[in-house]
Amino acid sequence: METFPVAGYCHPKFHKIETIFSEAIKSGHELGASVAIEHEGEMVVNLFGGHKDEKREKVWEQNTWVNVFSVTKAVTATCIAKLIEEGKLDCNEKVTTYWPEYGNNGKEDTKVSDFLCHRAGMFGFSEGIPITNWTKFEHFSEALEKQKPIREPGSSQGYHALTYGWLVGEIIKRIDGRSVGQYFEEEIAAPFGIDFKIGLTPDDFSNCADMIMLERDDDAQVFPLEKIKYIPSFLLPRQLKNMKNAIIGGDFYWAFQSIAQGAGLTGVNDPEWRCAEIPSANGHGSAEGLAKLYGILSSGGSRNNKKIISPQTLDLVTTQISNGPDTVLMGGDVAFGLGYMLYNQTARVEESPKHTKGYFGHAGIGGAVAYGDKNKKLGFAFVCNKEHKIRELYKTSNQISKALHALI
């Protein structure tokens, strides 16, 4: 199998990480990928290798961007954190304080924090995904504004896989006037030199890797688990009981509902998706850019006399406010602060990203993982362009993270 050798920089102390990453590329497990690690303000690892396309004609370079899917949620959460820092947003307030039209059909008492920790009960579209195109942000936010919640707001945690972006994005737009993509670019990316965007321009496309996605068959993923419905609950341990309840509830299908034929929505490598601003799912960037963002946040929130947020605000937004059981993610104990996934000592699912105490960040369905560790002043990012089946989805990033935390 033709491969492209790994390039970039790795501090000698972290040679084990270079070995793991190189094997992932050379074996063909990863088509193309990059990993970057910032520790105590220094970029100690910045490696890249493989190819940007399935035909292996375009070499992955240091500044190659790729769609990182739900890793985008935590980048959006950083925008929220900055608004909190500036005194413009109180997440304990009702959504209607900032978005009055949202207060209807049983959503009147929804808090902003419910959006951010996936407790708003709005993890799908009750009338199906709008027949429109991805660039029409307002079509999605208005549909959510009008509908009834699927679950009572605040009553349970159900991962808002796509809808998080339009809900949280609308809050940012109502407060600041700018879209999430524009806010992040002007307030964080440009001032701090962070290689990441939510909403590309056509000029960015040549720098992007193509995502090679698995064929979507949500029924096939869930069906093997359906048998658990017939096992009496008293025979099941707590986590399997939560899984049973989640499968019976069917929230997974709402959150990952199929796109209706003729809806006008395109695939993740198409210009329409790339140019849209979907603050839950279509951020594009490099591992270096994400590692730098988390490195700054984990090291006090400031650099070169410019500040994103204070350590106090970071502590606030990374305080756990929900921990499942998540009715969308098969009853899993997934912990959230204000938009960030957090370390969870009870998580034991092998295919999940491995977290450590002090961790805050997010993972994406394509295999990307980016996080900070405020205890170790660490910024980490692994990005790739080949989606794997669930059992191997985070194989490379988990191996690297395990080696990293054995070294620092």
How are the SSEs ordered, and which strands pair?
Blueprint: E1 7-10, H1 15-26, E2 32-39, E3 42-50, E4 66-67, H2 71-85, H3 112-116, H4 137-146, H5 163-176, H6 180-192, E5 196-198, H7 218-222, H8 238-249, H9 251-255, H10 271-275, E6 283-285, H11 287-298, E7 302-303, E8 306-307, H12 311-317, E9 341-342, E10 359-363, E11 369-373, E12 378-384, H13 395-407
Antiparallel strand pairs: 1-3, 2-3, 2-12, 4-6, 5-6, 7-8, 9-10, 10-11, 11-12
Helix pairs in contact: 1-13, 2-5, 4-5
Distance between the termini: 35 Å
Q: Could you report the average pLDDT, rounded to the nearest whole number?
A: 89
Computed CA radius of gyration, to the nearest angstrom: 20 Å
CATH topology, by name, is Beta-lactamase
Oligomer: single chain
- Write out the CATH superfamily name: DD-peptidase/beta-lactamase superfamily
Counting structural domains, the number is 1
Largest sheet, in brief, is: 7 strands, antiparallel
* Overall CATH architecture: 3-Layer(aba) Sandwich
The shape, in one word, is globular
